[in-house]
Amino acid sequence: MKRTSRDIRTANRYEVLRQIIAASPTSRQELAAATGLSLATVATLVGELLDLRMITEVGFEDSAGGRPRGLVAVNASGGALIGVDIAETYVHVELFDLGLNVLARAEEDMRPGESRPEQVVGHVAAAVGSVVAQAGVEAARVLGVGVSVPGQVDRTTGIAEYAPNWDWHDVPLLDLLSEYIAYPLYLDNPLRACAVAELWFGAARGHGDAVVVNLGTGVGAGLVLGSGLHRGVSNSAGEWGHTTLVLDGRLCHCGNHGCVETYVGAPGIMLNLRELSPRSPLLHPEDQTATIDALARGVAAHDPVAVKVVRDTARYLGAGISDLINLLNPEVVVLSSWVAGRLGEPLLTEVREAVARHALRRPLAATEIVLSPIPTDPVCLGAATFALEGSLQSVGQRQAKHRTTPARSRTAPAS
Ligand SMILES: [Zn+2]
User: Fold this and answer.
1) What is the average pLDDT score of the chain?
2) Are the C-beta atoms of 272 and 245 separated by less than 8 Å?
3) Do 288 and 154 belong to one domain?
4) How many angstroms separate the alpha carbon of residue 124 from the centre of ligand 1?
5) Is 342 found in the same domain as 215?
6) Are residue 234 and residue 347 in the same domain, yes or no?
């Protein structure tokens, strides 16, 4: 797909706001230095963000005899963003201010067999209503709602094309939600939500190339390439969980055998435990969360079975992550989502050792492997970021309509 001058302008607007959120208050000169954009471009973009009331002027800093530099900061109360994390067993919704601080949370449990689209939509609508009421924000201040749903999604049409765990096919999710929710809606999946959360607020910030490995019930890799989210031609890049790790290995729900996910997703880790010690008290057959928690406690207490299961899981992960490192040569690999959060440092240590045995020396030397530093639900945060990006993008569309010269007739890119 061709990158238009409007795309570049939108990417620059993201970059400037990202930097302001990271380092408020800041001056236009600091923003130019941090982003590599010209001072004139930064001044224009800062002007747009001020017009939108997303940022605000907060005085001046002394600059050793020169003209005092104006400072800008995020206008946290300038709007609200909502992030929706629809997972296999729950719907989690958070409402954020523009500094991306959580102002309200709501969670709805979904019992097995409660996953028909209209049931899920009902849970989302209830939780969104709840966070808006709790935070006491005016409806007009809500800039948008980002919705993350597992599986393949078409973000342009708002259709959940395929959610394997629920057997959803071509569900018009955003149309269904728009019957209950009046705010602008943005759909994507948890892989991309976690990647965008790391890019804006976490370990991928400031890195051109990063891989965000999502370890949950499902597994995948969110890809940040050239400082932007890599989506692929049909928004399905990053399905690393369904690449083959073991020929003729475990059956995967995607229909293939030996997928990465079947060894390192939560159900795969449970199977690693069951194969090692079928009657282990660590095993909670119907409860992934309880089993992963028991393993984490077991490792902390030096339980040999728990230690072995985490090591075995890390061996599979290490082989898979080495593929990503050899293929993409990223600066950072971030381990994200709830399984990585709960198994934490012991898993990270084992993964680093395993990767060192498989990856090529040169790309390995350039890569850091870290745990996600985001302390809250990264999927909610990333989903809310989609709403933020969406509102920044629609600014560009509105401005393009008002321009007398159509952007595409220009020869020089409007950087
Ligand atoms: Zn698979």
Assistant:
1) 91
2) no
3) no
4) 28
5) yes
6) yes
Nearest Cα to 339, choosing from 327, 351, 328?
351
pLDDT digits (tens, 9 = 90+) for 18-47: 999 988 899 999 999 999 999 999 999 999
Distance 380 CA to ligand 1 centre (A): 25
H and E: helices and strands count for the chain: 13, 16
Ligand 1 centroid to 173 CA: how many Å? 24
Check which CATH number belongs to the domain holding 50 and give it: 1.10.10.10
* Percentage of residues in the chain having pLDDT higher than 90: 75
Amino acid at site 230:
H
CA dist., res. 156 & res. 154, Å (int): 6
Q: How far is CA 87 from the centre of its chain?
A: 14
The rounded Å distance from CA 399 to ligand 1 centre is 44
Same domain, 325 and 384: no
State pLDDT tens for residues 360-389: 999 999 999 999 999 989 999 999 999 999
> pTM above 0.85?
yes
> Does 167 share its domain with 214?
no
Which of 58, 74, 90 is at the close of a domain?
A: 74
Q: What does DSSP say about strands 142-148 and 80-86: parallel, antiparallel, or unpaired?
A: parallel
Residue written as token pair 């009902």: 122
Same domain? For 108 and 163 the reply is: yes
d(CA 26, CA 36) in angstroms, rounded, equals 15
Span from the CA of 326 to the centroid of ligand 1 (angstroms): 21
Q: How confident is the model at residue 67 (pLDDT cuts 50, 70, 90)?
A: confident
Q: Residue 308's domain spans which residues?
A: 205-371
Residue-wise pLDDT tens digits, 243-287: 999 999 999 988 999 999 999 999 999 999 999 999 999 999 988
